[in-house]
Amino acid sequence: MHYTLRDIVVERDLDYFHAVHSDAESVRYYGMEPSASIVESEQLLRAYVASMSEGKSLHKVICRADTSEYCGEIGLFNMNERHHRANSYCILLPKYRKQGISRAISKVFYDYIFSTTEINRIQAFVDSRNRNAKTSLEGIGYNYEGRLAQYEYEGGEYIDIDVYSLLRKDYESQFGKM
After folding, report:
1. Angle, helices 38-53/10-21, rounded to nearest 10 degrees
2. From CA 24, how far away is CA 94, in angstroms rounded?
3. pLDDT tens figures, 40-53
4. Disulfide engineering: 96 pairs with which of 41, 71, 79, 156, CB 3.0-4.6 Å?
C-alpha cells in the first residue's frame, strides 16, 4: 500500500482525528491527555488549522494514496521564523503503526519542508520511554542530542525527555539538496 500527504479537511478528518487523539495509547507519550469528546477533538483540530493560518505550525494528513483516507498526521509546531526552527511530531492510528509508514512518509514531508520553507532545524522532544519513536527518528536521520532529566511531570512521576534534531545540512547531505 502507498501513502501520501494532503491538507486537513476538518469535516472529513474529524472522526479519524478523534479516534487517534482520544486513544490513551496513541497519545501516551505526547504529554497530553486523550480527548474526552469529539467536541474537544474538533476544537483541537480547528486550533491546528488556525495555527497554520498564522504561520505557527504546519500539519499534514498522512493518507492512503488510493483512497485519501486519514491514517495519521505529521507536522511542525512552534515554528520560529527568527531562528528558522520548529518542533516535529507524527502520530498514526493504531492499525497503521509498525509498518514503516512514518519513515516512508517522512521523506516526502521533509523534502517539502526543506524545499518550501527556511526551516533549518527540526527538533523532536521524545519521552525517553518511547523506544518506537526514537528508532523511527534515527531511521529518518535525526541525531540524538541529549536528555532533559525530569523535564515533564505526568501521572505522579517525572519524565525524562530525549532531544533529537534534524538539521537542513544533514538532511541534504543524506538525501541531496532541496
Report:
1. 120
2. 11
3. 999 999 999 999 99
4. 71
